[in-house]
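Now for our target.
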Amino acid sequence: MSKKQLYTLEYPVRCSPTILYEFLSTASGMQEWFADKVDERDGVFTFSWNGSSETAEQVESEEERFVRYHWSHAPKEEYFEFRIEKSEVTNQTILVIKDFAEKKEIKDQSMLWDYQVKDLFHRLGGA
């Protein structure tokens, strides 16, 4: 089994960090764009797609800055993270996604994130 690698994606967003953080850190927000159904209990999120579900623990977060999740089935050092940054040049909000994938799967995984983020932007009002 090959070791997964960390990769980073960045998306400029036209909305406030406060609103964006809600969509990244709450079950109701995540259900708007990330999964068909999302439940949360004691920091453990259950994400459901087409009848199958996965659980992830929200392991770390900082209001309006970042939220990190760890998939229950993944090795301890792997996670996926949403970070909210501001461009110093344009003052635009940037959504930074960090995730792990096998080298040969990074392109496909990136395309999946692109699709998910497009849905998020649609929910945010066409950002």
